[in-house]
Every structure is written in C-alpha cells, then in structure tokens.
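User: Could you walk me through two proteins back to back? I'd like the raw sequence and the structure tokens for each, with a short line separating them so I can tell where one ends and the next begins.

Assistant: Of course. Protein one, sequence then structure:
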Amino acid sequence: MKSTTIMIKERISVDLALRDSVGIFFDYLESIPQKEITVDFSNIKSISRSFAHEYTIQKKHSKKMIIETNVPENIKKMFEVVEQPTEKKVLLDLRTIRAVTL
C-alpha cells in the first residue's frame, strides 16, 4: 500500500490553533486518492486544545488510514489530554436548591 506524506505545517501553520482549519485540512486529505496518509508534524510549535479535539474527531470519521509521524512531545501530550474521557463534576445540584424571597 502506497502512503502519501503530508507536512501539516505547509497546509496549515506551525501553530495549530483554529478548529475550522481542521475541517479544511481533512477535506484535503479526503481528496487524496491514496487510502493511507502520513501526517508529518515536524516543526510544529503549538496546538490548541480545540484543534487537537477536532483533529481526533475528524480522524475517527475519516475513510482514510491516517498515521502521524514526528509528533513533538508537547503535541503528543495535548492529543492525550483530549482523548481521555473526563466526567463533568457537578458543582451544584439545582434540584436541591430552593429560591428564597428577600
């Protein structure tokens, strides 16, 4: 199987920040005829939580086999953060609070 390598910094930026740019990037990936695509994260400086979250969602729904390479440690950590499910903590149970007239 022949794989195509895409340098993400050339398609987007060295700073991956905007959630909307993920959709455009994945539209591009889906237009590539090869089934296997390697996304090269060389020289990426930063990634926002929203970008990483949207990237993981788009990757799960993609028809392509997407493999990441040369992912810097700080970028790996952000992907780990967004892939770990977390429970929302309930600060106040509104069912138990009563309104008081002053």
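----
Protein two, same layout:
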Amino acid sequence: MSFITEDFLLHTPTAKRLYHEFAADQPIIDYHNHLIPREIAENRQFQNLFEIWLAGDHYKWRAMRANGCSEKYVTGDATPREKFMAWANTVPNTVRNPLYHWTHLELKRYFGIDELLNGDSAPRIWDLTSEMLATPDLRVHSILARFKVLALCTTDDPADDLALHESIAKSGLNTRVYPAFRPDKALGVNDATAFNQWVDRLASAANVEIGTLQDFEEAIDKRHEFFHQHGARLSDHGLNHCFADFPTKAEAAAIFAKARSGHSAGEEEHNKFAAHMMLFFGKLDAKRGWTKQIHLGALRSVSKTGLRKLGPDTGFDSMGDFPQAEAVGAYMNRLEEDGALPKMILYNNNPVDNYPLATMVGNFQDGITPGKMQFGSGWWFLDTKEGIELQLNALSNVGLLSRFVGMLTDSRSMMSFPRHEYFRRVLCNLIGRDIENGEIPNDDSLVRPLIENICINNAKNYLGLELGKAQAK
C-alpha cells in the first residue's frame, strides 16, 4: 500500500495547492545540524540502512528500548542487519510517534519504497536498499544535490582545526558547508579535569598560552575569527537554562583561576562564570555580525546508569522544566545595554516555554533588521507535527510568522532532509485550513510570499551565508 501519498498531511484542497505550488520545490538551507564533516568531505558511501539510518540515532534507540529490545540490538554487538531487523519490528509500534511518519517518508524519498516497514518486509527492504546504497546516486554529495541543499551548518568545537571543512570547500561540492561555533565546554569550570583538558586543546589550536581569564578570552576570540574566515556566521549553545547571575570581571577571573589550578567550581560559581562567558560570546557574535542560537530546556543524561554504560547523547535525555523567561530576558537586556545584542534564535524543548520565549524576542527587535530576534522552530521533542503546530501558533499569535526563518534538521543522519518536507507540509496544512475557514484571504499575492519566505527566503536573507548555485524559484 502507499502510505506517503502526494497529499500526505494535507487535509484541504487549499493546503494541497499551497504545498505543491509554493513549497514542494523549494531548496533547503539546513542551518543547524550535527552531520559529520568527515562523511561530507569523503563523500561517504554507506553500505546499508544501519550505517545511514540507525547508527547514532537516539530517537530510534529510545523507541527500541521502549519496545523491549535488548541493548545488544540497539547499541551493542549485534550485526548491522540484526539491529535493522530489531528496528523494523519496532516500527509498527511507533504509530502516532513521528518516527512512524519519518521512517516511511525517508524510505519513499531516498529509495522509492512505498511498502510499510515491519518484520515481514524488513528482509526485502534491507536487500533492496543495500543494492541502491552501493550506487553513486546515494553517496553523500548526491544526496545533498537530490534535496537541493544550498547550504548546511555543522556543529563544531572551537578547538577543531576545521581541516575537513577546508577539504570540503576545495572539493567543488555545490552545497556550501560551514562550521558553527559551539563553545559549551568553555563553561565547564564545575569539572576542572575536563575543563583543563579542553582549555589545553584550545590553547594548542589558538597557538597561545592560557594562564588567565584574559588569555582564555583572547584565545576564544582568535578561534571565533578563525571560524569566521572559514565561512561561519552562526554560533550555538546547548543550555538547560540561561545564565544571568553576572559576576564582576574580577570574580570571573578568580573562578577561572580556581578551575585552572585543578579545583572544580561549585554551583554558584559555575553559574556566575557561565553568565560571564555567555556575555562574552554574545559580544563576539555581535562584533562579527553572526547569529547566536540558544537551545534551552533539555535535561540531559537523566539515567546515570545509561550514561556510565554508553556515554552522553545515547537516548537518556528528557524535557526539563527549568524557569527560563526571567534569565533569558536579563541576558538579552544586558547585551542590549552593552550595545552588543546579536541576531538571536531561541529554541525551547518544553512547550510550556513557547509563549514566554515567543513574547521575549518581541522585547528586543531593533526596528532595523526584520525578525532580528527569532523564536526558533520546534526542536528535539518538539519537532513533531503537534510540536511544529504549537510553535507556529505561538509565533503567529504574538509575533510575525512572516519573518520566521523556518526549519532545520538538528540531525546526525544523512537520511533526515525530508524533515524539511514534513515541516512544509504541516505549515501549508495550517495556512490552508485558515484560508478555508475564512481567517486568511485566499490571495496568492499575500500567501505565496509567506510560504516561500518561511521555506527558504527568510533564512537566505537573515543568515548571511554564501549559498550554492541552485536558487529558489
């Protein structure tokens, strides 16, 4: 049977027309993801669906564990084929989870497979996809061309030498691939051992000695400029909550010196140091005209048993319920007061923060840059159909949906580009429903630019990235 039809998720005639005429053929700017630069540089050829689809995907791992799969078949020593079979047996149990939609959308778009994935179909699908993955059409560069990816931004440590990005830039790949600056480890004074190991790596990358906070900041500034020279125009921070307990410079320097001497900071000291560094990072982004992304609200590594066995980012994270609004407002206000508030995108991981953050960005628009402050797309546990709709509704109600910079994959997998299609279908269904209800005029001169701008043009104009050759219609 065909599950992913041409009108998948489109429930009215108007929604269908909006999607097929205005959204379906738009290219992609995937400005935040966790794709592996080496796979792009080497134009990787994947051997099977485990390699391209299951390895590293903690969304699927969580579902498999919930379905009773032994860890052997999740992250353990089972063969790739055995792990895929375990996933295939899990898929029918994911009905109403977005994984069910994504799974079949991805099989259709990459391999032309309409068949539902389950234990019976799995052997056929494994064999067919393995044959197709052996062709040039599904190497990384061909995938990027197929989905019209004009540009993508990976997530990179400030101490990274960016050699792989240099290789990609010289390769002639039409898709532009840029690093994004992710300095989370710079806040880690609460673990002096790990912090000092990272500071030493940073010192080596910047070719400086780091003994004081001033040395530390100068090294980070140097690396920020290095990233800028490699095309970076976005930074990113993964925080459970924003930090706004601002210390004096002397207090921050003393906390740094304590950590550098091997003594971990306590919670209060850590919060103060993190607040200081986040101000510093904001000023760097403002100085070079970058966009700052802040991902808020994940409660990470909740299962300490899972963390000990498998490490971080293996499927043991949840939504957090941290208070966000007051600290986020204080942080943005302090940067504004200092004349150093960069373009900023705020993402939340708990829907209770939709309206607080959607209204917060409205406090700091500058009247010059359209949509300078952004309420970001549904992220992590909220990149579902419902989560996307909640984000779009909150933004529409208290801000300007028309200035929204749109969707991203936030993915580690080369199989995830159809998530842009998924978002666009949800968007067009929402707008189409409103038109048919008489709440938006049925006027293409109004609605066409709304759809096209959210799909591609706003990101193109906002982010300041040089793009590949293909252009939006």
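The two ends are 33 Å apart (CA to CA).

Let me know if you want the two compared in more detail.
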